[in-house]
Amino acid sequence: MSGKRQASISLIILHYNRPENLLNLIRSVPLGVEVVVADDGSPSLPELPPGVRQYRRLPKTGVSAASCRNGGAALATTDYLVFLDDDVEPHPFLFRAHWLALQMYDVSLGLLTQEKLKPYTDPRASIYVDMERRAWRFCLSGNLAITRAAFDAVGGFDIAYDGGHGWEDLDLGIRLQNAGKRFVMNWLAVAYHPGEHMAWKKPEAVQENYRKFVEKWGEVV
Q1: Would you list the DSSP string of the chain?
Q2: Sequence spans of domains, the chain
Q3: What is the pLDDT of residues 96-107, one digit of tens each?
Q4: Does domain 9-217 have CATH number 3.40.50.300?
Q5: pLDDT value at position 217?
């Protein structure tokens, strides 16, 4: 995180109360990447490295992932935005891969895997190639990059999803696709995610946001 090289891409980290994860993720970020921490009301934040920007949503009023990501994006100063959650471990090439993709596309869909550096172990990978026409289904904010122009064109994440878990990213994907934005399934932008994918879980907070999604778009997943 040292050095004076101008940032070419911005990382927005959604964070809540995982200080060690957050610091480890920040330490892994290469030069040339601007870092913004979008904190959803953690009791406290660790001391962040110099130059790291922070957006904090206080007081804590439940889950506000959409608002936090929007707030983090507003603080970013580059034209290319990468969204990662604080519990993922990005491959060192991830940022370069997203940056290269965003030179040609509006949205770069990274792959979250459950084994390090083994994209084919992810259950979605088997249908990755032929899914581009329904690419919004892979618009998962745990590993996602978007040009600022495309993000602003659709108004960012819908804050109606605040209060529950998940689905605000798939909602963003549908709106980007409906707006004619171009997607690429980016095999090289890999981040390791040790837990289950949030949208596959069934707690009430996830179901609450799923109901909002269905009310808005119908049964399209």
Answers
A1: --S-PPPSEEEEEEESS-HHHHHHHHHTPPTTEEEEEEESS-S--PPPPTT-EEEE--S--S--HHHHHHHHHHH--SSEEEEEETT-EE-TTHHHHHHHHHTT-SEEEEEEESSTT-GGGSTTGGGSGGGGGGGGGG--TTEEEEEHHHHHHTTSS-GGGTTSSS-HHHHHHHHHHHTT--EEEEEEEEEE--S--GGG---HHHHHHHHHHHHHH-S--
A2: 9-217
A3: 999 999 999 999
A4: no
A5: 94
